[in-house]
Amino acid sequence: MIKKLLTYLLPALLFTACLEEDQFSNSPMGNYDALWSIIDERYCFFEQAGQQHGLDWDAVYHKYKPQVQTAESDAELFDIYGNMLRELKDGHVNLTSDYGTTYYWDWNLNHPLNFSDSLQRNYLGNDFRLTNGIKYTTLPSNIGYVYVGSFEGSLSSDNVSLMLLRLAESKGIIIDIRNNGGGMLTSAEELAAHFVSGKTHCGYIQHKTGKGHNDFSSPEKLYIEPNGVIWKKPVAVLTNRAVYSSANHFVMLVKPLPQVVVMGDKTGGGSGLPLNSTLPNGWTVRFSACPILDIEGKHTEFGITPHEEVHITSADWNSGRDTIIERAIELINSLYEENNNKKD
Amino acid sequence: MIKRALTYAIALLCAPFTLCAQQLANDSIVPERVVVKCASYGITYMNNLDTYLSGYNHTGRGLYYSNEKFRDARIGNYRWKYQTLLTANTGITTLHDNTQLAGMVNYSWSGFHPFKINSRLQLLAGAQIQAGGGALYIPTNGNNLVSVKLRTALAATGAAIYHIPTKRGDYVLRAQADVPLAGVMFAPEFGQSYYEIFGLQQYSRTVAFSHPFNSPSVRGIFSVDIPIAWRLLNTTVRLTYTADIFQSDINQIRTHLYNHAFTVGVVKTIYKVKKKDNLIKYTPY
To answer: How many domains does chain A have?
Structure first.
């Protein structure tokens, strides 16, 4: 009996082999190879990047390799690694170390601003209310103006409900998310939940299931469920190119809703939920990992086109008028009158 | 009449022996239950890898606690012994400037069949139910800053216990190995975010069957009980080295949590008897 036990137990102990990942060395080339491999195995937009700007990730490796081999300092290596990541043209891809964080900004900076806080001040005035980072007021035309500059903070249903109750008498509301660079997906969803009256299908999400460029799970449906005070009057959502990530997600969620009109410039995009990993030297890399698709199953990585494209004109800019807000006021007034006429 | 007289005479003659036998029985009170308990505290050297969070080993030190109870089973004529073992560890591991926090709690229940080789050596073999939970946390990660560990498994377990008698009491050496054979564990898919799992409640793909080929793990416990008798102090101290090796390779996510823990604790032996006089002290351990 004892002999039998030993016969079975000992091999079990002996064959408990160590599970290690293939680890690159902590050297300039080792870190470079590690960085390239992390992106190669886990980044989710190779197909879209190939179609959009002809990305060839294998060619990128060979492009920067000679620079890495001749680099003389960590600072130089940091810049080279950052330049390699910029080839993805993705604002969600960053490298972080003591030298700072590398960014790709062209999705925003190569486009018209279409927002000015100086112009916004003419509408928001000095007596605006502030709740959980959201500024809001009622414009003279009895239209609610809500500015959501970020989704970094955690929005609560109570905050949004109380705000909507204060604006309940207005003809409609303008939700201005221009320059909102994102934050928490759940905050964007919390805000969107006040504009649906039932469980509403609003998009899809998928994730990588393996290291191949096309190893993805089947898209799972995304829903928004109503929460707190529900707003059914007209809503104008104002966008510009600096609307990114979670703010882009908010636009994706509300754009199909019947009472919502998205106006302004195309959004910046950033529809891949980013994850992080580390290099052998401890530097951190962030990358898009889980694509979120709109209700038609299309990627919004490169931005969402508004229902109505509006830009701030030079004439308006000079006269202190925000063309996009003015157009939103005009639209809500006309929708309000249209609804009144229908009731009559 | 003569027959009756002989009966009484024999009875009287035998009476002292009967009393003696009863006295022996009284001397041989066997406790209903004996429990050997030991809570130990110490440090652990940790080496953690979880490719969901980072592709590289994070190493560091932490605190380790174990609470062990070893007792006779009340079934089958004391032929079985059982052990409960609770361990907990927490610590900070690093990869250069990159910091990872780790914390795990494991519980196991084991039933052993003893094989007494001689008066000093006994071998134990049996089955074990394991359950464990914890997390690895990298604060600088964004949407994948935590990797949750939840698992339960059925394991094979075996131990060798060797007594070295001395005037102060027995030194007891113990070597034990626990090898999980089959179980289930929480295992997200390769690139699945916690937003999908917990935010959108897409749990369906996150439970995996574990076995020695995708989760080759083992826990080895090596301890020595040292009796100490010095002035009024009369106790037993246990020094333990635990090698807790947990590994998994599921959904192309590789994990290893290596703990090499050194702990020290005081052994308490508790005898449960109805009448304490003439108790025979022994240990199931």
So the answer is: 1
Pairwise pLDDT comparison (A174 vs A111), residue with the higher score = A174
Paired with B24 in beta bridges are none
Angle between helices A117-124 and A323-343 (to 10 degrees): 40
Contacts of B248 in chain A (CB under 8 A): 19
Pairing of strands B253-272, B81-95: unpaired
> Where do the domains of chain B lie?
1-30, 34-272
For residue A284, list its beta bridge partners.
A96, A278
Q: Which CATH architecture has domain B34-272?
A: Beta Barrel (2.40)
Helix, strand, or coil here: A69? helix
Residues of chain A contacting B94 with CB distance shorter than 8 Å: 282
A218 is in which domain, residue-wise? Answer: 117-272+291-343
* Cβ distance of A13 and B218 shorter than 8 Å: yes
Q: Element (H or E) spanning A134, and its range?
A: strand A134-139
Strand partners, A204: A221, A293
Interface touch A44/B245, C-beta < 8 Å = no
Give the Cα separation of B223 and B63 in Å (integer).
Answer: 18
Answer whether residue A319 is part of any domain.
yes
What CATH number has the domain bearing residue A256? 3.90.226.10
Render the burial of A291-302: b for 16+ CB within 10 Å, e for the rest: bbbbbeeebbbb
A208, B95: Cβ pair inside 8 Å? Answer: no
Residues B7-60 have pLDDT tens digits of 454 443 333 333 333 333 445 566 667 889 999 999 999 999 999 999 999 999
Backbone angles phi, psi at A191, to 5 degrees: -65, -45
Tokens 């660079």 belong to residue: A181
The answer to whether residue A174 is domain-embedded is: yes
Which residues of chain B make contact with A16, given a CB cutoff of 8 A? 179, 212, 216-218, 245, 247
Which of A21, A92, A97, A281 has the highest number of chain B CBs within 10 A, making it the mutation to test binding with B? A21
B105 bridge partner residues: B88, B133
Nearest to A144 by CA among A84, A229, A60, A205: A229
| Helix A74-86, helix A57-70: angle, nearest 10 | 170
In angstroms, the CA A144 to CA B118 distance is 88
- pLDDT bracket for residue B271 (50, 70, 90): confident
Beta-bridge mates of residue B128: B110, B155
Say what angle helices A57-70 and A28-42 make with each other, to 10 degrees.
170
Render the burial of B121-153: b for 16+ CB within 10 Å, e for the rest. ebbbbbebebebebebbbebbbbbbbbbbebeb
Does some domain include residue A80? no
Is A185 within the bounds of a domain? yes
Tell which A residues from 22 to 81 touch B, by Cβ distance under 8 Å.
23, 26, 34, 38, 42, 44
Interface of A with B in 141-180 (CB under 8 A): none
Closest partner residue to A16 among B96, B125, B216, by Cβ? B216
User: b/e per residue, B251-272, with b = 16+ CB within 10 A?
Assistant: bbbbbbbbbbbebebebebebe
Q: What pLDDT does residue B23 have?
A: 39
